[in-house]
Amino acid sequence: MDLSDPIWDIKLGENFRRKARLVAGGHTTKPPSSITYSSVVARDSVRIALTIAALNGLNILSCDIQNAYLTAVCREKIFTIAGPEFQSEAGKIMIIKMALYGLKSSGPAFRAKLAGVIWELGYRPSKADPDIWLRPAVKPDGTKYYEMILCYVDDIISISMKPLDAIYGIQRTFKLKNDRADVPKMYLGAGISKVKSVSGTECWTLSSEEYIKSTVRNVEEKLAKSNLRLPTKCLTPFSSGYHPAEDTSPELNTEGLNYYQELIGVLRWGVELGRVDILLEVSLLSCHLSLPRSGHLSQVYHIFGYLKYSPRRRLFFDPDPPCISRDRFHNFDWVDFYNGVKEDIPIDMQVTHLKDFKGDPRREY
């Protein structure tokens, strides 16, 4: 495939900085789907891992692999014609050897190489999420546990009593940004910090405050161009008594429709980062993506007004046992329906050695 005409792409980097990047025109290639799929760690898995880290007293370090894709071999047959920047080589046909940014197969190519390195370190993918890697380990006091590596493309988190061991193992093959690993402050666009809960227990938290402030600012700048502003005194995500399905206001034009869909996408990511307090409202408005009305857009602005009013929300991954009274549960006899039923347990089920809320080892399902 000829890639003589590369394209410019804009990437939203850390701290919401936009990065200009010259990339290959992967949209012009047609590689098989078998070499273009690449998974990443699920956000729910990250939350569970942070809870496990607090529950078992494990340390966390994160690192970012520099120029990740360029470390892997290109899986497609790609060539380009050298431009004048190659001086004496200008005009020659050149074969693309490494996985360039922009190619559909570059992500899977890099993931395969990273997975091979992690495998050589003795880690194995968990059955629940292939991008959480586990390795049996023992604490200095003899307690058995699992070390973990979480991978979201080139963003790595190591969870262990000695998390640097895994980082050093990865660093033998890949160059890390700034050649260092730190306690994570940001991951997947959310702020991460270790705090003490009300009971005094140390736990990890997830905050979307920086993302929310940035998106609210962008919406306000857009509205200001039309001499408009966000509604004020938004104490709840929806206006009182509002129901999206009953909205009969005028339909939005094409420009309004596209902007409505864009804002819903922004809010959905906010929900993913922990703003579960707007989950219901965003879900209801998402039902009208194909035919939104002006009233729906007004409620989107109302949600942003609510987020501006209360930008600080934090998810606590508290390892303390939940205080739930057994008196709230009733015993029922289901023998007539489930007599002799046994749980079907996989023969290769892993024993995690991780503690449950009572401090006892529990098997992983």
Explain the overall architecture:
The protein has 365 residues and is an alpha+beta fold. It folds into three domains: 201 residues, no CATH class; 104 residues, no CATH class; 30 residues, no CATH class. The strands form five sheets. A five-stranded antiparallel beta sheet has the order 3-9-8-7-6, with helices on both faces. A four-stranded antiparallel beta sheet has the order 10-11-12-13. The C terminus is likely disordered. Helix 5 runs parallel beside helix 7. The protein starts with 6 loop residues before the first strand and ends with a strand. Strand 6 and strand 7 form a beta hairpin. 27% of the residues lie in helices and 21% in strands.
Q: Strand-residue fraction?
A: 15-25%
Mean pLDDT across all residues, rounded? 87
Distance between the termini: 46 Å
Number of helices: 8
Profile the largest sheet.
5 strands, antiparallel
Strand order of the largest sheet: 3-9-8-7-6
Number of DSSP E strands: 15
Structural class assignment: alpha+beta
Please give a handful of descriptors for the protein shown:
365 residues, alpha+beta, five-stranded antiparallel beta sheet, 27% helix, globular
Short description, anyone?
The protein is α+β, with helices and mostly antiparallel strands and 365 residues long.
